[in-house]
Amino acid sequence: xxxxxxxxxxxxxKPFRYSGELVLWMDVDDAGPYTGIKLIWLEMRKQLVPYSIxxxxxxxxxxxxKLENVDTESxxxxxxGKDIYLPSEMLPELDGDKFYFHEVPGWTVVDLENGTDLGxxxxxxxxxxxxxxxxxxxxxxxxxxxxxxxxxxxxxxNKVLRVEVPEGLVDVFVxxxxxxxxxxxxxxxxxx
Length: 192
Description:
CATH superfamily of the largest domain: RimM
Number of helices: 3
Distance between the termini: 64 Å
Strand order of the largest sheet: 1-2-5-4-3-6
Helix content: under 10%
Structural class: mainly beta
Strand content: 35-45%
Shape: elongated
CATH architecture of the largest domain: Beta Barrel
């Protein structure tokens, strides 16, 4: 497996006790579909390496995992901080107006209110209080926020996201500001 065919499920955060067990944090809303996994992949020297799971049990809001051939605290420390990968086909199918961030690059974005084609999704930026779409629109880059209260319609068949766009937001990216348009008329102006 390689990264393009997989997704990050979570992270091995730290050793758990002294027998080589690790704490596993799953970056998902519902860990239920993943409680029976038997194999995970970790990135080692820029390659994904499979590890068999011997035991996986809930522990507070995380899990404790025992991996095959990891029997010591030092072995567990070597794996601490590593992202856990699974094959993309293990993702539960989404319905309705939910989507996975990795599935929408290349999709078309349309303004939900007026039907204007805004461009193609380059990627989803997932930093800060809510995710944002990075969209290429006629050579310009748009950043469209996706807070929870914004309406989004997902058309998987046609690979289209129809999103609520705040009024004037697109103009910020595609129209130069008034300051930039004042190209020297005020060169002799003195500010006090």
